[in-house]
Amino acid sequence: MARGRGASEGAVDMGLKLRMRGEERRIASQHERLDDLCREVYARIGKDGASSALDEFVLFETALDAHMSVEEEIYFPALHGLRADIGEELTGLVEEHGWLRSQAAQLEGLLRGGDAEGARAALDRLARDVSTHEQLEEALIARITEGPVTPMGHSSLEA
Question: Where do the DSSP E strands lie in the chain?
Answer without folding.
Answer: none
